[in-house]
Structures are given as structure tokens and as C-alpha cells.
Amino acid sequence: MKTAKKAYIQFGSFQSPIKVDGLQPIHCFITKNKKRVVEIHSLQKALGYEGKSELWLLNLLISLSKFKEIPEHLLQAYNHPKNIEIKKHGAEGRQIQVVSHKIMSQTFEILMSAKIEGLLNASQIKYGKNAEVFVKQTHGQSIKKIINEVSGLNHFRKRNKLLIQNKLLEKKEEPMFYWISHLPNSFFEKVMKLERQTWENIESKTEIIIHLFYKIFSTHLPNDIRELSLNKKPKRIYQKKFTQPKNQIFEALNDYLEQILVLIKQSAGDRFIFDQLLHRSYPPTTNEVYLDTKADKKSEIILSDFNQILKKLVK
User: Fold this and answer.
1) How far apart are CA 267 and CA 40, in angstroms?
2) What is the pTM of this model?
């Protein structure tokens, strides 16, 4: 077995695994290049293997390939696993072997079907049963989203969304601002892209993002949505295991978010063009102006000929 190039984790720890009733916990992580991965050792334990060999699951799949077609990429993933290094403060880094969350899901499906088809011998049946337990308990849920939750990525995003919300409320007691932390992550990412920002640098460059959100959710916010936000308040969310929180966004706000995303797309990622499109589509509904010289610097990218013409037209 050969290992691929070493990667480093950004989210996840041994203290926050995927827990399924009746199975050993599965350690999962998100690497710095945004890949969701699971530790092979704990994956094998969850299936019921009690040994220490990292090759056990690979060998099991190879033995099954005599009776059932096993995708080549699945075998290659276990034959050439990735190495990731986990570092603790003041301690030497620890290396573990991992495969992607998609490989894990496909493995469980294959073992479950092998049990149903009678391809597992008496000593192997428990592996198929444990795979079935995992599949049934996570049915209808995205493994990627489960890893986002248990690894701490969702908490990190929620914390930064709440940071922006609180900073906005410090500027102005705008009812709409209480909805900021409940906006979809995908919307945040599109808006952040206009300012070349990411979840990771929000804390150090908060003012830039606040300026843009202030424009969208105060300066240019339609009065009918402002009035609705006075009467509609976000509720506290109670999230069940392996389920995503219920979307609380009311219909008028959701329609507004979709229109903002359309303007972002039309701007081709240029902040100046977006501001002009926003101004034309949603004229200011308040005379208050958000002043911040740093945030007012324009973001420039190389535009196509069409977008260069568009930029001149909206000036």
C-alpha cells in the first residue's frame, strides 16, 4: 500500500467523530484544501474489525471482487490512502491514513448489498450488518453536511455570521440585521466573493464585509421587507441528530436574496458594477450613509470585453 501526498487538517478532531448508535465512532476531518475525509482505522473499527492492519478493508473488498464488481477507484483509494497530519499545541504531529467521505459511503453501500446478496461468509456478516446500521441511521442525510457539523465547520461559520450581525447592530438598530446570522451559507459566500473574502479572514477584515451587508440590508432594503422584519423575528433553532436546521427565511426576504444573487452574477464579480446595479434595482430607502474609507476601496478583476462595456454604461 502506497500513501499519497500528505495533507493538513483545518477542522475536526478525535474528540468530535461521527457517532452512530451501535457502532464505534468514525473520526472525520476537513483538510485545508476543503476535502472531507475519514480515518481508515476508525472506519474499520466501526465495521467491526478488531485488528490493527490498515489493509483489512482493502483485502475484504478484493475478496468480494471475485463475486461482485467493485469499482477500481474504490480499491485504489484504500491502496493509496492519503496521509494527513494532526498537530496539537506543544506536541509532535500525528499522521493518520484517510479516504474521502464519498469512498466511505460507497464502501458501506457495497458491504450492505453484499450481505443482502449472500456474498459474505459467517465471519463477515457482521461487517455488512454494521454497514447497514450506518446507512439506515444516516438515510436521507448528506455525509458531507454531517462532517461539516461534527468537525466544527458549521460552528465556525455561525460564529462569523453572528460576528457580522452584532457589528451591524452596533452601527444601527435595524430589524433586518437580526436575520443576518440566519441567512444561508451559500448567500454569504457569494457576497464575500465580491470583496475577495473568505470565512477564514472575516474576523480580521470584518469592516469590509459589514460595509457591503449594510448596503444590502439597510441602505437599499425595500421598505416592505423592512416592515415585515419588524413583525417577524427569527426563532431559536433546535437541531436533531444528522438533520439540517429548518430554514426560517420568510418568502419576501428569500425573493430579495435571490434577486441580490442575480445582481452579483450580472456584475461578474466586480464590486463597482454590483453597487451600480444595486442602486438602480433598489434605490436607497434611507438617507443614512455608512462611512468607512477602507471598505470603500474598489475591488478590481480582469473583465471580459462585454463586462468592460457594461461597466462604462453603468457609470
Assistant:
1) 44
2) 0.81
